[in-house]
Amino acid sequence: MDKFIGYRCSLCGAEYLPGQVTYTCPKDGGVSLSCGGNLDVVLDYDSLRQKFQPEDITSRTDESLWRYLPLLPVADPGGEGTPLRAAGWTPVFSLPRLADKLGLRHLWLKDESRNPTASFKDRASAVVLARAKEIKAEVVVTASTGNAGAALAGMSAAIGQKVVIFAPKSAPLAKVAQLLVYGARVLLVDGSYDDAFDLTVKAADEFGWYCRNTGYNPFTAEGKKTAAFEIWEWWAEENRESRIGNSTDESLISNLDSRFTVLVSVGDGNIISGLHKGFKDLAALGWINRLPRLIGVQAEGSAAIANAFHAGTERITPVSASTLADSISVDLPRDGVRAVRAAGETGGTYVTVSDNEILAAIAALGPLGIFAEPAGAAAYAGLVKAVEQGIVSAEDPILVLNTGFGLKDVRAAMQAVSAAPVIEPTLEAVKRSL
Ligand SMILES: *Cc1c(COP(=O)(O)O)cnc(C)c1O
Ligand SMILES: [Zn+2]
């Protein structure tokens, strides 16, 4: 495991060895500045660069995030033949009809709802479980608005790891059903996600559980970065023809179009930070020469990170979150600083969308065969907004991430469509209603 050489605090820059810390930066900066910053996992990029060429990764046969094991700070967790081995490697769909509608040339959607428990969170949970196995954690615990818990429960069930999930009692029923069916111990907290988060940290401390919490456990971003690796591989494949005839001394897949833009919805800010980390890893390896623009999309009613970004500060002021997109409903984002940087350092930005715009996005994606939960559709709603505001232009190649499956929140889905008429079982009634 010598490729994993330690952690660096994203706030104060303090460095730690792998065994020295577990969650956030423990440094006490004194009265004026107490740390607690998110820790970035540091890999030994020099030795990785010497050991691997891009082809060593792209020629691997695993059709899951485990194809990137050489670039992850964990050992192989095993679990062959189980859903744990099926996380990641999600499809990218081309959306020419929506591209036309928006006046764009190139539009794709990477469908993370195709993960084993139907959200992006499987990536994080899979890699945290690999870490849990290495440190021989008996119980893994997480706070969740639903998807992180479902992912942890589902991935754990696959390999027999004990887990406890704290979710707000307002979590959509389908997500709670997933937790229970996967056999997790579930505690519904009479409070918000933020209350559940704080309680989880206390419980982990009290009972010696290993805590997966998003934006707290450094390994969640490591799991999420695998989506960036997939985008990199997909983009190379997409552009293969235009590379033919190019000079051969250039690494095969180093050229990202300068306007290539990825849009993703943002709650705690860990997905966008994870994507950023993945692209930074690739740059550190010399396998890409620029990072795609990352545009974060927040709900208007839960926009603490977008607010900070547009105020030009890394200081995140909590909001009192209110949006129907439960997966991105967060008062105090736990990965806010890195999320602000993910957009800032890639030439991206933040846009906010209303709940009605999110519902319209669900209705726009559905007829293409893509059924997104509100937080998943929010990224597309953000693209519509970004086009209106001139943030993206016609020639920009755009990739939107759908982070979660529509059946997770049927109540919201039904608000996006008009109800079906109920008719008498007669042909006349059919004729009348057509
Ligand atoms: C968790 C989640 C998000 C947001 O991810 P953050 O890391 O909290 O920013 C977006 N969409 C879905 C479906 C999610 O479950
Ligand atoms: Zn620190």
SS content category: alpha/beta
Strand order of the largest sheet: 4-5-13-10-11-12
Mean pLDDT: 94
Q: What proportion strand?
A: 5-15%
Unreliable spans are 244-252
Query: Element order, helices and strands?
Result: EEEHHEHEHEHEHEHEHHHEHEHHEHHEHH
- The amount of helix comes to 25-40%
Protein topology:
Layout: E1 4-9, E2 15-16, E3 39-43, H1 45-51, H2 54-58, E4 92-94, H3 96-102, E5 106-111, H4 121-134, E6 139-143, H5 147-159, E7 162-168, H6 173-181, E8 185-189, H7 193-207, E9 210-211, H8 218-224, H9 226-238, H10 240-243, E10 261-265, H11 270-284, E11 293-299, H12 304-311, H13 336-344, E12 349-353, H14 355-365, H15 374-388, E13 397-402, H16 410-415, H17 427-433
Helix pairs in contact: 4-5, 4-8, 5-6, 8-11, 9-11, 11-13, 12-13, 14-15
This protein binds pyridoxal-5'-phosphate (PLP) and zinc ion.
Pyridoxal-5'-phosphate is lined by residues 119-121, 147, 214, 265-271, 327-328, 373, 375-376, 403-404.
What does this protein look like?
There is one protein chain. With 434 residues, the protein is α/β, with parallel strands linked by helices. Among the domains are: 51 residues; 229 residues, 3-Layer(aba) Sandwich (Rossmann fold), CATH 3.40.50.1100. The chain is 38% helix and 15% strand. The chain contains 17 helices and 13 strands. A six-stranded mixed beta sheet has the order 4-5-13-10-11-12, sandwiched between helices. Helix 4 packs across helix 5 and helix 5 packs parallel to helix 6. The protein is globular, with a radius of gyration of 21 Å. About 2% of the residues have low confidence. The structure holds pyridoxal-5'-phosphate and zinc ion. Zinc ion binds next to loops.
